[in-house]
Amino acid sequence: MLARLDTRIELASDRDDFVQARQLALSALDLARQMLEADTRNSRIDWLGEPWAQVQQPALHADGRIQLMITDASADAALNGMIGQAAGGDGGGGTQAARYPSVPVPTPLRVPVNINTAPAIILPAILPGATPAQARAIAEQLRTEPAPTLRALAERLPEGVELPHPEQVGVTSDTFLAEAVVQYRVATVTLQALLVRESDSVRVLALRQH
C-alpha cells in the first residue's frame, strides 16, 4: 500500500517537473521573440555576429538549466517552404532542388534567403557561377564582415559569380527558428518555435515539442 502511494507521489512529482520545464521553455521562446524585436530596432541587417545568433543560457529559474538557440530559417528547405505557404507565397520564379540534388534549397524559394547567414553549402545554388570553394570563402567572409546591401556584396564577389534575382536573396531575415532545451530536475523538454518578424513585432507561426 505504502509502495503504491509512494509511486503515485513520485509520478505526480515527475509530472509537475515536466509542467515546470515546459513553462520555462515557453518563457525562453518568449525571450527569443523579445531579442529579435530589439534587433529590429537596433540593426538594419542580420548576420551571425549579432546577439540573437549566439547560444543563450538564460537564468530563468534556480533549478532549471536552459539553452536557447536562434537560427535564420530562410535557408532551410523545409522551413522556407512552410513559411511561404503560411504567408500565402505563390512560389513564382523559384529555384528547383532537382538542379542541386545535394543542396537543401527550398522548392520553390518562397522567402528570400539572407546571404549574410546562409551556409556555404547553399551558396552555389543561389549565387550563379560560384564553386564550392568560392562559396566557402564567401560564407567565411560574411560571417565576420556582413554585406550591408546586395550592391556591396556584388562588389566582393569573385569574377564569374553573379547575384541572383533580388527577390531570392537579401541581407535581412524575417523568419527564424528558436529552440529552447530545458532540464528541470528529472524533466527535459525541447520546444521549437518558428518565428516571423513583421515590422516591429515578432509572432509565432508554429510551435513544436520534442
UniProtKB/TrEMBL annotation:
<feature type="domain" description="T2SS protein K second SAM-like">
    <location>
        <begin position="113"/>
        <end position="157"/>
    </location>
</feature>
<dbReference type="Pfam" id="PF03934">
    <property type="entry name" value="T2SSK"/>
</dbReference>
<protein>
    <recommendedName>
        <fullName>T2SS protein K second SAM-like domain-containing protein</fullName>
    </recommendedName>
</protein>
<dbReference type="InterPro" id="IPR049179">
    <property type="entry name" value="T2SSK_SAM-like_2nd"/>
</dbReference>
<dbReference type="InterPro" id="IPR045584">
    <property type="entry name" value="Pilin-like"/>
</dbReference>
